[in-house]
Amino acid sequence: MNDFRVRLEEERPYLLRYARLQLRESSAAEDAVQETLLAALAGEASFGGRSNLRTWLTGILKHKIVDTIRREARETTRAAPLGEDGEAQLDELFEADGHWREFPAAWSDPDASLTQKQFFATLEECLGRLPAKTARVFMLREHMGFETDEICKELGISSTHCWVLLYRARMALRECLDMNWFGKK
Questions:
Q1: How far apart are CA 26 and CA 39, in angstroms?
Q2: Which of 47, 65, 76, 102 has its CA 20 to 30 A from that of 27?
Q3: Are 57 and 8 in contact (CB under 8 A)?
């Protein structure tokens, strides 16, 4: 086995973790990573070591993830109405006028917490608790850097719905992190 293939295989766990965060389904993540590695093998000559291998592979994987999302969007006949995929639980955090029922506690030192590996494990767990569509919108925006209009086009949603999902994701993540990370002492 040549050195390039060994290096590709060493990046597989990272790529799988990245894809699972985006796609939330192990089989879809496996498929995206497999397609990424095949594309990398086919494009080995174009890589040439001009950038970090992980960065190059992640770039390829991002395109494969978007392709998967597009494919899933075409295959899905109609999205579930709000509430059926767990979003109703988020509404319980707010009064009818949109204000918090109980305002979240202030975080003591989030910058220091970000440097801790356990924080990222907790964040990953919190992301896994989000409804699938809400998590997908959040990851496309905050992790992959997509603009709102790109997200709307990819997922077939309105910009208003996109902003609602982003808001709910942020609030749910804050609540989850308050309970599972910042509440710890």
A1: 20
A2: 47
A3: yes
133 half-sphere exposure, CB direction, 13 A CA radius: 23
Distance separating alpha carbons of residues 66 and 6, to the nearest angstrom: 26
How far apart are the C-alpha atoms of 70 and 66, rounded to whole Å? 6
pLDDT of residue 78: 45
Contact (Cβ atoms closer than 8 angstroms) between residue 127 and residue 172: no
**Long-range pairs for 78-86: beta carbons < 8 A, 24 or more residues apart:** 79/133, 79/156, 79/157, 85/131, 85/132, 85/133, 85/134, 86/130, 86/131
Give the amino acid at 56. W
- List residues bridging with 94 in a β-sheet: 100
pLDDT in tens, 12-71: 999 999 898 888 888 999 999 999 999 988 888 777 777 788 888 988 999 899 888 888
CA-closest candidate to residue 28, choices 144, 116, 132, 106? 132
